[in-house]
Amino acid sequence: xxxxxxxxxxxxxxxxxxxxxxxxxxxxxxxxxxxxxxxxxxxxxxxxxxxxxxxxxxxxxxxxxxxxxxxxxxxxxxxxxxxxxxxxxxxxxxxxxxxxxxxxxxxxxxxxxxxxxxxxxxxxxxxxxxxxxxxxxxxxxxxxxxxxxxxxxxxxxxxxxxxxxxxxxxxxxxxxxxxxxxxxxxxxxxxxxxxxxxxxxxxxxxxxxxxxxxxxxxxxxxxxxxxxxxxxxxxxxxxxxxxxxxxxxxxxxxxxxxxxxxxxxxxxxxxxxxxxxxxxxxxxxxxxxxxxxxxxxxxxxxxxxxxxxxxxxxxxxxxxxxxxxxxxxx
Length: 330
Fold this sequence. Notes:
Structural class: alpha+beta
Number of helices: 12
Largest sheet: 4 strands, mixed
Radius of gyration: 22 Å
Strand order of the largest sheet: 2-1-4-3
Helix content: 40-55%
Mean pLDDT: 94
Number of strands: 4
Shape: globular
Distance between the termini: 48 Å
Low-confidence stretches: none
Strand content: 5-15%
CATH architecture of the largest domain: Orthogonal Bundle
Order of helices and strands: HHHHHHHHHEHHEEEH
CATH topology of the largest domain: Isoleucyl-tRNA Synthetase, Domain 1
């Protein structure tokens, strides 16, 4: 495969990423199919950065950034995960293990960010008041992450990193290649109730819920997950863990309702799911019968209660005409 042909067809950063993603201590293979997969991985990283930057519109880190102790629990967690990853990446760079850097960054973009964090915070970004703490908190987290990520990929995806760098808000060096590692704020363990173990456990519950929602979707009962309501039958200690999110559990699971029921025996309804830690949870998913709010797309029983806003749910009325909803966790 001629390098110049790859550069002309896919771009220099694709070629650079292929080189970085291959373990040079063993035989290196290349083909059109391998380069195609590399291009797909590159687009995942690039599109993640694009989403982060798009949501920083109107955000000035000098005046709008939320202090770590005031950030919401989910935002603190993702920043803490980024800090942990940065330590791993620095160690990999020092050992010239570029293939590990590629794997870890791609996995972070695909799993923690795209499949979970960014999916959850879309509601907060698009429905809460523009200057609310809830929205500024997630913008702060996104800002910290994209600042760090641009530096992570700069030695490998140099052209892409420079492009991202030119659009980031705030004062900075003329080139990302002249910058040092970003100092992520110390947010870990500020609230022991929402440590890494909590969010990892919640991720397993979310995956189980997603499988049940997919069954409804395939059956034609729902379109998006917001068309559904959940009843979760849970025993201790998982029950106590999930109750920490209170009503905000529904935002993490991306359903219109998420009702928790404490149980010590097998309930009469619900699909039994055994989680990776061998604990059991019973999930009853059903299509919501409530009216859909035209603004947030949640099906809520209080849609139309406010005569001035007959198509909005209660929290959207607060966000549009009131002081704004209060979010604390997610």
